[in-house]
Every structure is written in structure tokens, then in C-alpha cells.
């Protein structure tokens, strides 16, 4: 007799997904969330709430009954605001009618961009250590992700020649993120120009994730999209999560050549339809009227950066001065522990959570990501505890061959 | 504004060592700058922001709109100076619009404030009229909300 409750042993999971590991951040989150009373420097989002004026605009929209779908591309008024903002800050003008797509966070924009351009087997070059999603989304699109390792001794910057070594006939695009999560690295004009020239010579598309752009503390703030000849071969991706402290609104956007935006829109319209209207309404207010709030938060991060980097160096963990984003990325190799062991033991012994550098690629081994999007009082306490931890390790090392044991 | 002043306005108790770290200055530089600001009168004092509503104090506060006749020499400053010296006056501003001075006063009870207004303030020569508003509740002071902090759970580790 046949029964309906027979167990299935068939493997339903798609083959190309199997090699993709879970995010190292996610792994660490599971360990941390089982604990109480920790100080977390593991948080990749602002500790500020969204500025009140922006929240209020969203509430007002809700009051007025803004509860519908919007155009697939996003509200026309938001696309205009984006066009003006990008023109004002980056000096590149995109047509709101056909060159801008509003997405659910910059994460969706990245996924759409990669899916829109990658044929099976196409290669996409990105730099490591990097944010966790770049390699997986290329795999999801049946492409091949190719990592360029950036080096601590150069401040984790990316240069033309480093990319050149990885080019093949299948290379289609280059994915960059400066300022970088987790290293805080930025590129200067010369470095960007070098990469732009290479893209032109080899006819590559550059996908640039500008999510931390406003949070630049030193040097000129610019996008590769503004370099000569680059507007047509760049997809500029940005969002409001970080600089406007709007992570929960899930609002991002893509700017680029009409055919690229059209292709991304095709996927977006069938899979996501549109970004939430209340977030879009908040986004208009954010882009039009809240530069001062962004600047206020940027200044606060800058002071915390100075504090945390000088504290890390004082305790003997060599840490370069990040020029952007809100992460310090200290070198912990002198302690003789792997990134993961360091992070686990720091959590265990001092109740301080940081993310192991290996969560951001194998070249993050020996490093730790410490977010300074954290209240200054918590940073002070965390630094005190970390210093005690490092000091204890150093003392133990003098006694025996195995540090920290 | 100097970043040092901004930080002190947020938290005047921040130690010079920490301020130095945040600003990338030496501790001595920070101490010298603070001393200079105190000496030249840019920094006028340091106070805690207290939620007085939580203390059940015998205290009432009022805001008074005061119209005055400016003097031939000195304009508003002569009379304003006289009024501002009363210890009952906590804060005072010269305003544009329908009245001239906005005066924040406090006393132990309604009667005490009322008598200050009728006996001291209103009788000063040049004061034309007063309109008094008593305060009922403090929501925000010096940029600080007086209500309990919003509790919002953030993930402990996130991208």
C-alpha cells in the first residue's frame, strides 16, 4: 500500500549552491547571540537611529495612505532626488527616466547587476578582504568569481597591475567597494584612474558599490563613474543604509547606462516588483534635506575611529588608519592566534565580540574587524577589556611556547 | 565650531586623555585649548542636564514675554542687563517679533514666581508689559530627551 508520509531522500538543493559557504558573519552571529551582556564591535550598521526628520517623512506618508506599489523603477520623485544627489556629490548626471533603478538595499542592486551581466562561465574580479556577498552572488549567477588579494602593507588598496594579473578572455566585470568593508581602505584619484584606464582598454564593466562613500574621513571623495570614459561602463550602486542610518528601510539604487538598467529592471520587476513605498518616501526626504545629519554622524564616527585605532595600537595590535567606512581592522598576528581563535577567546574571556577577518575572505586571516559604529562609552570599555586580553596573552607567551594557553 | 567644543558640549566630563585620542591631539594640547577657552570666555561653565521632573522638587518654571521701551542710549541692553541679573532668571533672550525679551524664570511655587513678576520685573522702568506662561512638563532640554531611552534591539553581529 502506498502512503503519503514516505520520507524523501532525494537531494533537492541546486548543485551550484553547494560549494557556497554560509556567511562567516552569520556563523559568528550564532555563537554571539547565545550569550548575554556582551559588548559588540561586530555590528555593521550605525548605532544611530534614522534621523527623526526622515522617520517623520515616512510616518507622514503612512498617515496619508501611501501603502501601494510604486513604479518598478521606483517613485519618479525619488529617482529625481537620486539624480540630483549623485550629480551634486559625484559630478555624474543620470537620467531619472531611464538610468536609475530603486532597489531593496544595495544588496539587491548588486545581485541584479551581476545577474544582468553574467553568462555562465563569465569571470568577475573583486578584491579581498571584502564584504561577504560578492563571491556568492557571482556563483548564484553561474559565473566565476576571481579574487584579488589586497595587502595590509599597502593599506588594502587595489591597483591596476593587481587586477591585470587576473584578467582572462572570460573576464567581464570588475566589482569594487571603496571605502571597503572591512578594511576601511579608499582609493586615491591616481589609483581610480589606473583602474578606469584598464577597464576602457579591456572593455570591462565596473560595478562600484559606493555604500560607504559619505563616510570618508581623509582624501577626496570620488567615484570611478566620474572618470573619463567610465559613465557608460560603470554601474554605480549606492544606498541609504549606512550614511543615513537607514539599514532597516532596505533602500538602495543603481545608476548606469539605459540598457543595463533596463536589464536589471527586468529581473527586479519579476522578483521584487518595487522597493517599499514608505522607504522610498523616507529616501526622498533623506536625499533632499539631510546632508547635515550625515555630516554630524560622519564626524562622530571619525572621532571614534581616532580613539579605537590609537587604543588598538597602544595595546600592541598594529592597526592602520582606515580612511573610510566604520571599521578598524587590526593585525592580530603578533598574538599567535588565528582570527577565529582570537575572536572566540576574546568573546569567551572578556565578553567582547568582534568579527574574525576570515569572514571576509582567506586574506583576512590574522585580522579582526572591529566596528566603531558603536557608542563611544562602549568602545572605551571594549578597548579596556581587549587590552587586558592581549596583555594576558603576552604574559603567558613569556612563560611557555604556546601563547594564550 | 572647533571639534573640541563640540565634544565638550556633548559630554563635558570627557577626560582630556580621551578627547586627545578622539581628536588626534596630544593631551597637553587639549588641556591648553580648554584653558584658553575658559580664559577668553568661550566656555562659560559646566553643568549637568538634570531631569527635574523626576525629582518631585518644589519648583515651578515660567517663560515670560516682556515688552520694553528701548533707551535712547544702549537700546535694549540696559534694561535687559538689569533683568538678567536677578537670580530668579535662568535664561533670557532678545527676540524679534511681537515682544522683546523672552525670560525663563523659576521659583519654589507659583506665588513666588508671580510676586517676582509683579513686584520686580513689571515695575522696572521701561518694562511695558509681561505675558507669563507656566511650564507643565519637560520633554527635552539642551538637545536631550527627558523620556526613557527608546529600546530597540540591534543584532549583535551584522554585515
Summarize the structure.
The complex is a heterodimer of chains A (405) and B (159). Chain A has 13 helices and twelve strands.
Account of the protein in words:
The complex is a heterodimer of chains A (405) and B (159). With 405 residues, chain A is α/β, with parallel strands linked by helices. Chain A folds into 2 domains: 136 residues, Aspartate Aminotransferase, domain 1; 239 residues, Aspartate Aminotransferase, domain 2, CATH 3.40.640.10. Chain A contains 13 helices and 12 strands. The longest helix of chain A has 24 residues. Chain A is globular. Chain B has 159 residues and is an alpha+beta fold. In chain B, strands 2-3-1-4 form a 4-stranded antiparallel sheet. Chain B has a two-stranded antiparallel sheet with strand order 5-6. Classes of the chains: A alpha/beta (405), B alpha+beta (159).
Content-based structural category of chain B = alpha+beta
The total number of structural domains of chain B is 2
CATH class of the largest domain in chain B: Alpha Beta
Rounded to an integer, what's the Rg of chain B over CA atoms?
Answer: 21 Å
Topology:
The complex is a heterodimer of chains A (405) and B (159).
Chain A: H1 15-18, H2 24-32, E1 39-40, H3 52-63, H4 76-90, E2 100-103, H5 105-117, E3 123-128, H6 134-140, E4 144-149, H7 160-164, E5 171-176, H8 189-201, E6 205-209, E7 234-239, E8 252-255, H9 258-271, H10 277-289, H11 291-314, E9 327-328, H12 339-350, E10 352-353, E11 355-356, E12 368-371, H13 376-399
Parallel strand pairs in A: 1-10, 3-4, 3-5, 5-6, 6-7
Antiparallel strand pairs in A: 2-8, 7-8, 9-12, 11-12
Helix pairs in contact in A: 3-10, 4-10, 5-6, 5-9, 11-13
Chain B: H1 3-10, H2 16-23, H3 27-39, E1 60-68, H4 77-84, E2 89-94, E3 101-107, H5 110-121, E4 127-134, E5 140-141, E6 144-145
Antiparallel strand pairs in B: 1-3, 1-4, 2-3, 5-6
Helix pairs in contact in B: 2-3
